[in-house]
Amino acid sequence: MSDARASAEFHPQTPNEARVLDYLLGGKDNFAADRQAAEEAIAVAPELPMMAIEGRKFLGRAVRFLIDQGIRQFIDIGCGLPTQNNAHEVAQAAAEDARVLYVDYDPVVVTHARAILAERARTGVIQADMREPEVILAHPDLRRLIDLDQPVAVLLMSAFSAIPEDEVAQDIVDRLREAIVPGSWMAISHPISDDRAAATEKLASLFQDTQIVTGSRRRNDIRRRADVEPYFEGLELAEPGVVRLPAWRPDPGEPSVDPESVWVIAGVGRKAVS
Length: 274
Ligand SMILES: C[S@@+](CC[C@H](N)C(=O)[O-])C[C@H]1O[C@@H](n2cnc3c(N)ncnc32)[C@H](O)[C@@H]1O
Fold this sequence. Notes:
Blueprint: H1 2-5, H2 17-24, H3 32-44, H4 48-68, E1 73-77, H5 87-94, E2 99-104, H6 107-117, E3 123-127, H7 133-138, H8 140-145, E4 153-157, H9 166-179, E5 185-191, H10 197-206, H11 225-228, E6 235-237, E7 243-244, E8 264-271
Parallel strand pairs: 1-2, 1-4, 2-3, 4-5
Antiparallel strand pairs: 5-8, 6-8, 7-8
Helix pairs in contact: 2-3, 3-10, 4-5
Bound molecules: S-adenosylmethionine (SAM).
């Protein structure tokens, strides 16, 4: 199954979520179709580039928090194209011995990540489908870098937009949480449509044509908070719980945006040590 799925294809003429996100973040690893899709989306929701940046800032704060909790191993699933403040840069700046394994299913993401990480110690990247957590966790490249007998942090940052089925997304979280040892952590973020019904409906329909690397149909709406909260069940949430990105442990003095203007929620939780 994983070998067949690992043949995700490269279509530069079809917008692709990793490359659209790269464009929103001001990156250069995108094509005309991605830029057009991103501009159409920005016309509907001008806050999208700001939200993308807030997503990367949350990733940085979460990784530093996890380093402070003693975590030295990270698995970043649905990692996206390498950009600034990638998990390994943040983690290894805070703790040189931190190890980071990136996972994405998109061949463009994986090729770029491999090129950037070629010389980098304690960092790896694998092409794998998050719908198969056991395949990810058994991958020899993961096993070379990550000791699953020790606590680990699993990062799922805006990773579920390409997983249309609620039960599949929940199953991915559940199986990963089951597999990691007590004392491990999960950090999850997800956009929500609760107070942006009109805009998010338009965005969902715009993104219908975006290529999903797994070949699934994209869902025609964006999940609501009540759909996302169950992902955190079974975890002891760090303060302040599941909140909008800018409200999650903002750095002192950080110029902050109004949390209410960001329709992405996130939380970081630990698998209890019983
Ligand atoms: C919205 S991007 C998020 C990127 C990054 N985590 C961030 O927040 O900046 C979602 C990523 O998930 C990847 N992805 C989609 N479906 C996947 C799957 N089934 N398995 C692994 N990665 C997948 C996409 O290729 C894309 O890079």
